[in-house]
Structures are given as C-alpha cells and as structure tokens.
Design brief:
This protein has one domain: Tetracycline Repressor, domain 2, CATH 1.10.357. 71% of the residues lie in helices and 0% in strands. The protein is built from 10 helices and no strands. The termini are far apart.
Length: 197
C-alpha cells in the first residue's frame, strides 16, 4: 500500500476533523480527540496544523474551494441562468446528501462560532473561492438580461439563505419529504425572486 503524501495526509486529517466538528461541535472536539480518531499522536497532528483554530480555518477554505470549483463548472456551462440556478441547487443538495458534514460544518461551526475565525477569516477571506464564483454567476445573469441588477449581498443572502435553511431543516429531520424533492420548487422560487420583471 502506497504511503500518503503530506498533502494527502493533511486532507485525510481534515476529512476526519470535519466529521468530528460537524457532529460534536467545535469546542467539544479537541486535538487529542482528532489525533486519537485518526490513529496519530497529538504531536504529529501539530506538525500538520499549528492549532485547532488553524485546522478550523483550513477546513473552511477547503470547503469553499470545493463549492467554488463546482459553481465554476456550472458558470462555464452553456446553460441559461435559470438552468444554472437549478444546477447550483442540485449540486448543493447533492453535497448535503452525500457529504453532509461539509455543509453542516459551514452552517454549525463556521457561521455559529465566528469568534473562532475572527483573527484569520475576516469578512469573506476564507470563503472567497465560493463567493467569487457566485458573484460571477450573478454578474453574468444580469449581463444576459435574466437577473435583476441588485446589491450582491441581498442576492447572495436570498440564494444561500434559502439553500442553507432547507439543508438545516433537513438535518433537523423537519422536512416531510426528501431534500431532493424540493429542488425544482426551490430553484423556481430563487429564480422568481432574482429575475428581471
């Protein structure tokens, strides 16, 4: 069996830490718990991440990169803006279903524990790949005449608030149907809220 490179090992540590932080919470998950779970000494874990806060920051950068890359692919497609909204909703819900810890971390750790990130993730620094691609999506939709020209943050808040809210309700087992069954109506609602009159 081949040995993992340092970068591959780092990603495997982040993957396990992501699960722990999402399930147990940021403050309940300690570096010794993470090290024990992955079968590594605490000292060796600190060779990869100088602190739990740096690990948390690297995780949000990692997630933003994954989401940003997915949206970039959608942005580069030849779909209409309306179709792109459907594709973004589908992608987000698919990740929430297949890798729930990814979205859970964003909602339950990053957004709920801002004090952890205040010295290293001010503003949108740590989520910039994701935010940048959504900004491009909105700009292209306006340029195509499909979306209303409006403040980016109101459009971003509407779009992501809707998606995050639905994933949260799903995680709390409040939704009466599977999350995927809401895709078409949510995409339609987002499109109707953002489109030109």
């Amino acid at each position: 069996m081949a040995r993992l490179s340092k970068e591959e090992r780092k990603i495997s540590i982040m993957t396990k830490a992501l699960e722990l932080f999402s399930k147990e919470g940021f403050y309940q998950t300690t570096m010794p718990i993470i090290a024990s779970t992955i079968g590594m000494s605490v000292g060796n874990l600190y060779n990869y991440f100088a602190s739990k806060e740096m690990l948390a920051k690297d995780l949000i950068v990692y997630i933003a990169g994954i989401l940003g890359e997915e949206i970039r692919r959608i942005n580069e497609s030849s779909q209409t803006t309306r179709e792109k909204i459907g594709a973004i909703v589908h992608m987000y819900f698919k990740i929430a279903h297949e890798r729930p810890e990814t979205i859970e971390y964003f909602l339950r750790v990053y957004l709920s524990n801002r004090e952890v990130f205040q010295n290293c993730c001010e503003g949108m620094i740590c989520v910039s790949p994701f935010v940048t691609e959504l900004m491009i999506f909105f700009e292209e939709g306006v340029r195509a005449g499909e979306l209303r020209d409006q403040d980016f943050f109101s459009a971003f808040g509407l779009f992501m608030g809707y998606l995050g809210g639905m994933v949260f309700l799903n995680g709390e087992k409040i939704l009466p149907k599977a999350l995927e069954e809401y895709e078409a109506s949510i995409a339609e609602n987002i499109y109707n809220a953002l489109k030109t009159v």
